[in-house]
Amino acid sequence: MKDHKIDRLLRSAAQVREEAPSSMPFGFDTRVIALWHAALPTANGVASLVRRVALLSMAVIVISTIAAVREANQSREIGESFANEFAIADTAIQDEFSQ
Amino acid sequence: MIFIKVFQKLSQFSGKVPLEHWVSRIAVNTCLNQIESERVRPELRHADLTEEERAVVENLATSSEELAPDQRLASRQLVEHLLAALKPVERLAIDLLYLQGRSVDEIRKITGWSAALIKVRAFRARQKMKDQLARIKEKP
User: Fold this and answer.
1) Is this complex's ipTM strictly greater than 0.95?
2) Residues A44, A50, A52, A54: is their CA dihedral positive or negative?
3) CB distance B19–A39 less than 8 Å?
4) What CA–CA distance (Å, rounded) separates B126 from B93?
5) Could you report the per-residue pLDDT of A52-87, keeping only the tens digit for each?
6) B21 within domain boundaries
7) Number of H helices, E strands in chain A
8) How many CB pairs under 8 A join A and B?
9) Given A9, A25, A35, which is nearest B75 (Cβ)?
């Protein structure tokens, strides 16, 4: 069973608000985060090397893929232009012989 | 003192929980340690109370109505007296739950206690306060 005396007393006491600041001092959290970032341990040599190799490999793969696609496009265009020239020449020869 | 501790323990901050929660845990633990280090206060007697506090005790015993607005300050002082005799964790539970009006979930985040533990501590604290109030009335 609830004790109503204590409830009444606490309710009345709670009406008196203490004016204690509930927030952190200005800029405190920024300083803490900054210090925390500065204190973070740096990655060791092996992890750093692996990350660099992975990034480099990715860059090489991307560049190679772009180069291969461009090369394929160019060779197809050249092939098509040669095919047209051969067809023109063939037609011209045929016309020459038929005359 | 709390902010100094925050700076000292900065290396222990994992960054997995919000900074506010981490700081409030340190604040709670620092305050509890401080209160724990204080000596146990003697039992509160009727003669130790001010006139206004005695009036509040009298009002609580004789009436079932809410205390008048002009008795708020005295009731707060009386509660402070009653809280002083409690364990620090019980004091904190009453302060957060009833005086600051925080929810159980908020207190759980601030203190790291489970909801059941908060309720148990608040219940025990209320019982002790009730007993103490009865003793004040019995022993003038």
Assistant:
1) no
2) negative
3) no
4) 10
5) 899 999 999 999 999 999 998 888 877 777 777 777
6) yes
7) 3, 0
8) 72
9) A9
